[in-house]
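Hello,

Our lab assistant flagged a job as stuck in the queue for most of the afternoon. It eventually completed. Since we weren't sure the result was trustworthy after the delay, we are filing this so someone can double-check. Below is the sequence as submitted and the structure that was eventually returned. Let us know if re-running is recommended.
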Amino acid sequence: MKPAGGDRTLIQKINTVAVLRALHGAEQLTLRDLAAEAGVSRNTAEDAAVALVSAGLAEEVVPEVEDQRRVGRPAKRYRFRGDSGYVVGVDLAVHEVSMLLVDLRGAERTRLSRHLDPHAPAEDRIAAAREALLAMLRTAGVRRRDVMAVGAATTGIVDHAGRVVRSTRLPQIEGRALAEDLAAIPGVPVVVGNDTRLATLAEHWLGTARGTDNFVNIVAGRHITAGVFLDGRLLRGVHGAAGEIGTLAESRWQDALRAMAAWPDDREATVTAALGGDAAAQARIDELAEHLATGIAAVVLSVDPECVILSGGLSRAGRTLIDPLQSRLDAKTLFSIPIRPSTLDHDAVALGAVRLALDHVENDLFDTESARLAAVL
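-- returned structure --
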């Protein structure tokens, strides 16, 4: 019995999404490989590929000159079109707004940063961010209609609706619905998250924790917070506050910040002095490690991760801090959990915002009811 019309349409959608997923996950594929990856017949793969080309989501790869000279017809190849759309990642930090514009493959097109007055009213900060976003698009020559989502990060507790519930560092944005405030392009969705949580997402995507599905990210610099990635997913919590143990005095993270504020030299100078054998500087580093280790141990004992990532400004201290921190953490936990420095540095939060936006777009693209697929099926 042949499937009814509605069933045929659904099967066609499912097959097309399977082909789209296969193309999205590879540089390029021959029809034979595409059919194998998608789990469909060669004819079905070709029909779906042609439909995706019509939708602007894929393109046929033109053979190289050497391939054209070979005997026989070269195999047809297709690839996902990263330039079929763009997303923006916004890091709305205390002192600046930083943005990245990337295509749907995550390839960077351009970036922009502008200084922000930390004491400016929320309206001024939001207006500056919206203006910067539109200026970046103009500079890159990207049309507004080609932007498919905006991801944004900010300090403070952000709920699942994109509202800032609490912010000690930027109290003027408390209660703001940033998902609405940053909607500079009509019709383009804005997804918002906490800066530490999104930096943690970036670590899993492109950073030290790439390929690691269970880890803790300790962001330590002007403030100290934690992000948790558990069983392949970013842990946000019911209120968006997962990992905020620094609010507990018992974590000793506030003691760590006070200790650094009392140092006679800045962090870089203290680390350099410790590297040079200065006993007093090393003692300050050791004290900092003891403070940090208490809170980190609490998180580690709660979720039992594969590793701990140290990111933020203190990650630049390298082994000078990590070695004493590792020994103190080991003394407080049941198992030795390796501490690894982040490789993303200042871009981590904006990259996490990019990943959040890409996830939003991909969830829509790989939906059988996707509007872009419906236009050609």
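-- support follow-up --
The delay was a queue issue, not a problem with the job. The result is valid. Residues 77 and 303 are 45 Å apart (CA to CA). DSSP finds 13 helices and 15 strands in the chain.
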